[in-house]
Specification:
Layout lengths: L3 E7 L13 H14 L2 E7 L3 H14 L5 E7 L2 E4 L2 E5 L8 H6 L1 E3 H10 L4 E7 L10 E2 L15 E5 L7 E2 L2 E2 L2 E2 H9 L7 H15 L7 E4 L22 H4 L10 H9 L4 H9 L11 H16 L3 H8 L1 H4 L4 E2 L2 E2 H11 L16 H5 L8 H11 L17 E13 L6 E12 L2 E2 L11 E4 L1 H12 L6 E5 L7 E5 L19
Parallel strand pairs: 1-2, 1-3, 3-7, 7-9, 16-20, 17-21
Antiparallel strand pairs: 4-5, 5-6, 8-10, 9-13, 11-12, 14-15, 16-17, 17-18, 19-21
Helix pairs in contact: 1-5, 2-4, 5-6, 8-9, 8-10, 10-11, 10-13, 13-15
């Protein structure tokens, strides 16, 4: 999955009625959701005034230094003044060119932030130059559209129109023609980005009956693919993007945000009192996204060893009750999500946070919490190659066969010989799950069989009592050995594992 950060801005609610747009917020939201599915960490901002626009771009530029790929998307009014391009805020003053210039955001500043971040690939997509949609439906403050601009090295800049043209605000359902075409093609697998934009251009030209031709300038080196085959999410989550990709979280100074901020500090002496503050929190005043993020951080804090958080996890069914809201429990949703997804909102393939797997899944048959397990089941549906146990009511049993090969091991110190068993196969039905690439000399755990069984159960994400494990062990083995990073997947039908590699 790509190590990629995207800032998506969609502006529609401009100050004057004649400048308001119909679909640009839809465009931004839909692009954000699609890019999230493709592995991007997303910050989606809608109806940004000048101050919010500047803060968002500055934060994007600072965070981008941790990523290989940067993407900036803007949907709204764009204009050129004296040959320079400007992206407008909802409070941009269009009374004259000077006012518009100083109350908009210069496109060159976005490019400079992306250039200084040293990312390998920078992508800028502008569905701009949109005029008042009533009555003529064009996006562009003046008739000349945006000015031509050339992409620095490693950058591709994509415009919804050719230089001097304007862009339609409608034409593809809830989206503009251009963004609708982006959405239609962006999930195509293994398409180089230049070919992707060529497909978009063909769609835009045909759907607009030749009135609009998208345009790009690129200085990319090497190939980039939006979709290399691994989707990250397939359902739209009902939470803010900074709670889904919680590395983007910034405290707004509210009580719940202050508590979450303290939980994110890896210090027991800060985290413990923060959990104590929850007893004074007015739960009814906290929105669903913040409750979701709270759940994520309580699980993380418990795994880190903070006693107050561990107490919560050991008394979940009772502790969660005050957070029930219309048969939904967003705190529990957050805990379950945190187990499977990381701070970028990316799936934790083979690296689930299974420390409290059993405590969480004890609730899957509790009628008060069934909706949370239906939530995580839907979120995990795209990952069934790598998730082997999904919530069921009544719970199901997962049958697994583990095959070992007996081997003599010489003690390093006294040359004595012990009989051990080397794991060579893990199967579900006829499907081999253990991948050869995960089996390497000197990268193996050695333990008693019960410890291996728990490691296998946690790797598979199977709660206690729901794994039916069959093996060929005889009982003579003093220990078993198995890969330290036991990544298991259905994606390969055979694991070309050679026991001599151990």
């Amino acid at each position: 999955m790509p190590n990629a950060l995207a800032l998506i801005i969609g502006n529609a609610n401009y100050s004057l009625q004649k400048h308001k747009l119909i679909n640009s917020v839809n465009d931004a939201s839909d692009i954000a959701q699609k890019l999230s599915m493709l592995g991007f960490t997303i910050n989606c901002v809608t109806n940004a005034d000048k101050e919010k626009f500047e803060r968002s771009v500055t934060s994007f530029g600072n965070n981008l230094q941790k990523y290989d790929i940067g993407l900036f998307y803007f949907s709204g009014h764009g204009l050129q003044i004296d040959g320079n391009n400007y992206l407008t805020a909802i409070d941009t003053n269009f009374i004259d060119a000077i006012s518009a210039k100083y109350t908009s955001f210069p496109l060159n500043s976005v490019i400079e932030y992306m250039q200084q971040s040293k990312t390998k690939v920078n992508i800028i997509i502008l569905d701009a130059c949109r005029d008042n949609p009533l009555p003529n439906g064009f996006r562009g403050i003046n008739d000349s559209g945006l000015a031509p601009i050339y992409a620095p090295k490693g950058t591709i800049i994509a415009f919804s129109t050719s230089p001097g043209e304007r862009a339609l605000d409608y034409g593809s359902g809830r989206n503009s023609i251009y963004t609708g075409s982006l959405l239609n093609h962006i999930s195509d697998k293994n398409i180089p980005i230049e070919d992707f934009f060529k497909r978009v251009r063909t769609s835009v030209f045909n759907l607009s009956k030749g009135k609009q031709t998208s345009w790009e300038h690129t200085s990319l080196i090497g190939d980039f693919y939006f979709n290399s085959g691994d989707l990250i999410q397939s359902v739209k989550l009902p939470y803010r993007q900074e709670c889904i990709a919680d590395e983007l979280f910034v405290s707004r100074g509210t009580k719940i945000d202050t508590i979450i901020e303290k939980l994110k500090i890896y210090d027991w002496y800060t985290q413990g009192p923060a959990i104590g503050e929850l007893s004074t929190l007015d739960v009814s005043s906290v929105d669903e996204s913040d409750l979701f993020l709270l759940g994520r951080n309580i699980l993380q804090t418990a795994i880190g060893g903070t006693f107050a958080a561990k107490d919560i996890m050991e008394n979940l069914s009772t502790w969660l009750l005050p957070f029930l809201r219309n048969k939904e429990n967003h705190v529990l949703n957050g805990m379950l999500y945190e187990m499977y997804f990381d701070s970028k909102g990316h799936f934790r393939k083979g690296k689930f946070k299974s420390n409290y797997l059993d405590e969480l899944f004890q609730l899957q048959t509790d009628v008060r919490y069934i909706s949370s397990f239906e939530f995580i089941r839907q979120v995990l549906e795209p990952f069934t190659d790598d998730v082997f146990y999904l919530p069921h009511n009544p719970p199901t049993i997962l049958a697994i066969e583990a095959v070992f090969e007996e081997k003599e091991f010489k003690d390093f110190f006294d040359d004595s010989v012990e009989i051990g068993a080397v794991l060579i196969s893990v199967k579900h039905g006829n499907t081999e799950l253990l991948q050869a690439t995960n089996v390497r000399r000197y990268e193996n755990d050695r333990s008693k069989f019960p410890d291996f069984e728990q490691k296998l159960r946690f790797s598979l994400g199977v709660p206690k009592g729901k794994l039916r494990l069959s093996t060929n062990l005889t009982g003579n083995e003093k220990f078993v050995t198995y890969p330290y990073s036991m990544n298991l997947s259905r994606k390969f039908s055979e694991a070309d594992i050679n026991a001599n590699d151990f």
